[in-house]
What does this fold into?
Amino acid sequence: MRNLFLHHPFIDRFDRDSFRVRLAKHLRNWGVACLLLIVGAALFQAHYGFGLNASPSLPYRFFLIHKGEMPQRGEYIAFRWHGGGPYPAGVTFVKIVAGMSGDTVTRADRDFFVNATHVGQAKAVSRQGVPLELGLTGVLPAGRYYVRAPHPDSLDSRYRLTGWVSEVQIIGRAYALF
It folds into this structure.
């Protein structure tokens, strides 16, 4: 009576020999496709990555990062935070490149300029009430970038805590997804 509802094809699915036959057929049909998918994912991961911007300073939060590609002025840059302030070391930051090596950073009161183009106004204190030190001014040396974001609370190169981003911190060029 207990085998009344168990049909043989159902029981055969759990038979070892039947399983081997089905597995071999599956690998013949899908083995190459699975291998190509794994190789493609490895190649993608070697050159690209996804990043979630740690701060809400940009209108986008999720980015595709092209590893090793150096961004140009006006493009998004992904870099590793060196630590300090409200964020731990190693967090991914995404900002906009406003200045590159050879550009001149100046300040008038709390307004910052790169090559005489206004890039933002520094606040005296953070949202938590912590005093903020102003960032550096002068000519950007080789391998340094001035980064910014349009948000007034952005922790960018206007402040000493962020400073000028070094090439060793850069992950690559970022592309906004959403």
